[in-house]
User: Fold this.
Amino acid sequence: MPHSVSLINTIAAGLGLALVFGFLAAKLRLPALVGYLLAGVIIGPFTPGFVADAGIAAQLAEIGVMLLMFGVGLHFSLDDLLAVRKIALPGALAQIAVATLLGGGLAMWWGWSPGAALVFGLALSVASTVVLLRALESLGILDSFTGRIAIGWLVVEDLAMVLVLVLMPPLASTLGGHSTQAGPADPLWQTLGLTLLQVGGFVALMLVVGRRVFPWILWQVTRTGSRELFTLCVVAAAVSIAFASAALFGVSFALGAFFAGMVMRESQFAHRAAEESLPLRDAFAVLFFVSVGMLFDPSVLIERPLQVLAVVLVIVLGKSLAACALVLVFRYPLGTALTVSASLAQIGEFSFILAGLGVSLGLLPVEGQSLVLAGALISIATNPLWFSLIAPMQKWLHAHSSFARGLESRDDPLAELPMTTEAKYLSRQVVLVGYGRVGRRIAAELDANDIPYVVAEQNRELVEKLREAGTPAVWGDAADPAVLIQAHVARARVLVVATPDAMNVRQMIETALTLNPTIQTVIRSHNEQEAQLLTQETSATVFLGEHELAQAMARDVVQRAVSMAVPA
Assistant:
């Protein structure tokens, strides 16, 4: 050919084979991403036949990560991040430490050096943001409190890995490798201080300046009336801000794009921006999984099967059990602990970067990188399975384990209403499940009409604040009958489920009707098909977001038209 077409070849082969194998995987009732990974293995350098350009594929995948994280930022406010800081920050750091010790201990047992063991353990400690987000989206719990905990946990992990990547080169010679710096290395304290200053400066700039500038730019572009310019503005913001943050402040592309989305969320067009970028996010996310498959050498499964098994067990069991224990220690429900555990039962993009840097610095043997890639591929492919086992496992534990039942019913002052609660909140009251953006507005209307209500909420800090403000609130997952019992649902007039998580709504309604057959139930939904099913299966009144918005707009239009009508 007269010119290079590596980019076209890579995109065509990657997307084409991903479609074929993703379709076959879906037909076999397997996650589609298993097909995407297999497509990458087939066009990778370790299998015969066509070999795609791995460098181009990796860059395309990086764009996918940027767009995906930008989309998450559009739905994830600073308040959401701060709401989970008390569990996400210490939990993520403790889980990284535990996973690093497990992976490092395994490497030391194999006879590797301490430096190699440290890098290997760190590579096994950090989960893939892309895989997590796809899983949460498929389950419909991305906007739930549990979903926010998982995302906040991953944000802390990403920040920690940024520091690790910066500190590895100056520490390489100390750990037994070789430094890449030409001149004398800077003191460790100076490197660490500069890194913290850069990251802090980036976050401050985005939150202080970005929250005003980027929404204004989006508004100016919207005023042109051009849809393609709007889409271009969204994509350009995601990619350019991510690149600038990496170039100027040393943070990762993914983290830069995430904060860009968070500040863009201040715009009234944030929802439209998320919709416009969705097709690109999906396409490039597929290329991410294809690029992961291209890095995998299947021969490692034959040459080192026991080592691969050990790595997978550290990722899937060791790290997940540690996360589960940490969430339970912070007194969150068993369901939340299992969901966070499943979210972290895989490794991804930061693991590849850490392993590659470790090899280049002479810290990690090449076989270590192969084991990390094998562990990533297997853990990513099996991750949907662990999510599917959450509900059955929780049900089985409740039925067969007194310890698990004790976790849900343990003595906690926030898990039941105080003895001093007024009688009007204990009978003929409204039980409001969820105190997010929708729940707060419902509560404000109830207050304005002097209607007593009790809040059931999973966020401990929020329950504490509500009680300080004099609002009766119970902490816990309302899918657990004990939570609704403590909210006195047996004598309530109405049950309102204002959370976006529709997975456990049926359990809540079933519990409420069992305890109080005359109770009225009102729930929210984002999906029309889901709303129809809930209406058919339950006696609840279901409010669909788009439907209610259309009705409200129609009423306003009719009122305006009638008031402006010229009398005959």
Summary: The radius of gyration is 26 Å. The CA atoms of residues 333 and 408 lie 6 Å apart. The longest strand covers residues 520-525.
